[in-house]
Design brief:
With 341 residues, this protein is an alpha/beta fold. The protein has three domains: 46 residues, Orthogonal Bundle (434 Repressor (Amino-terminal Domain)); 133 residues, Response regulator (Rossmann fold); 132 residues, Response regulator (Rossmann fold). It is built from twelve helices and twelve strands. Strands 2-1-3-4-5-11 form a six-stranded parallel β-sheet, with helices on one face. It has a four-stranded parallel β-sheet with strand order 7-6-8-9, with helices on both faces. Strand 3, helix 7 and strand 4 form a beta-alpha-beta unit. The chain starts with a helix and ends in an 8-residue tail after the last strand.
Length: 341
């Protein structure tokens, strides 16, 4: 027999009226009290409150999407199309649920100032683009005391839900493609600015090379600034000093790959005849480079959708308190920047 509203009210230490408002998805109770009531109701077996309409539609919920470019060397204007696809994924679900969505972009603003600015915001939950954030900076968001989901990053010990691309899988597909194309000497062009995605991709590179019994040659490991112009300069300096090159370079992302290709051309190297190049992210412009760039297409739209769905579970109390890391695989898009040898 399902519990009565008065039983739930006693367990939650609130009035029966507050329970009725929470269970019928009405205004008049705070988000924290609503989550508490719903959690207790679920634990007591009160399922009838959670109709399909309750789970999906709520015009009173406001979501805030925070686009944060801490230093701008990874998140910049060249990634606008990439970030837009995240937003479109989020918007798809907010429209379905009739949530309100607000977006703010912060460029080179201290994290503490961003958080302080959000404290008075009327939002039920946040989705945060955490690409350039470090692990300890995620903890600073505890001050908001509201459900938060981070996208485009994750940390193993994070207390928050994170939705990200499966970097290890993407790197493995790249190295596998090079291996199957006959390449046995593969270099890595990595970003000099630390991000979680870059760090995991470098780990994935080492693991994939070991899997295919390929040697990792330190003189083929290049570190460049991930901003395009700087990556060209850094790669040119490397090429000035190193005449012996691998048959292929795996680049941490497409912007770095574009810089790598420009520098190789500056040194009269033909792509892919002299050296092959693979990127990661599959930005729209990768289809129009010369030659078109082989890259890993990230499921950005799906990541945005899943982040909003997970946040909705938090806001409506349909989830327990254990944080989840959700990794979504991408696809290898084969183009003309890799030569079969």
């Amino acid at each position: 027999m399902p519990p009565r509203i008065i039983d739930i009210a006693r367990a939650a230490e609130v009035s029966p009226a507050a329970v009725s408002l929470a269970l019928n998805n009405k205004t008049g109770v705070s988000t924290g009290v609503r989550q508490k009531i719903i959690g207790i109701a679920l634990s007591m077996g009160y399922q009838s409150a959670f109709t399909e309409q309750y789970k999906i539609i709520n015009e009173n919920i406001t979501i805030k999407l925070l686009k944060i470019a801490k230093h701008g060397h990874v998140i910049n204007e060249r990634h606008n199309a990439f970030i837009t696809e995240y937003m479109e994924g989020v918007e798809t679900v907010t429209k379905m649920r009739k949530y309100k969505l607000e977006v703010s972009f912060f460029n080179k603003v201290p994290i503490e100032d961003i958080i302080a600015a959000q404290k008075g915001i009327n939002a039920d939950g946040f989705i945060v683009l955490g690409t350039e954030l470090l692990a300890h900076e995620l903890d600073l968001f505890n001050e908001l005391s509201r459900p938060i989901v981070f996208i485009d990053t994750y940390f193993p010990l994070s207390t928050y839900d994170c939705v990200d691309m499966d970097n290890i899988d993407g790197v493995f597909r790249s190295i596998q493609h090079l291996y199957r194309s006959g390449h046995r000497s593969i270099g890595l062009v990595k970003g000099s600015y630390e991000t979680r995605n870059f760090k995991v991709r470098e780990t994935g590179f080492h693991e994939a090379m070991e899997y295919f019994s390929l040697p990792i040659q330190e003189n083929f490991m290049v570190s460049v600034d991930p901003a395009f112009d700087n990556s060209v300069n850094d790669m040119n300096r490397f090429l000035d000093k190193h005449k012996n090159l691998p048959t292929a370079f795996f680049c941490m992302n497409d912007i770095i790959a574009y810089g790598c290709i420009r520098a190789l051309r500056d040194h009269e190297k033909k792509i892919p005849d002299d050296i092959s190049v693979i990127g990661f992210d599959d930005l729209p412009s990768s289809n129009y480079t010369e030659p078109p760039l082989t890259s890993i297409r990230v499921s950005t739209h799906q990541i945005g959708q899943r982040a909003l769905e997970r946040l909705a579970e938090r806001i409506t109390g349909m989830s327990d308190n254990k944080p989840e890391t959700i990794l979504i695989a991408g696809d290898l898009i084969e183009r003309d920047s890799v030569k079969i040898i």
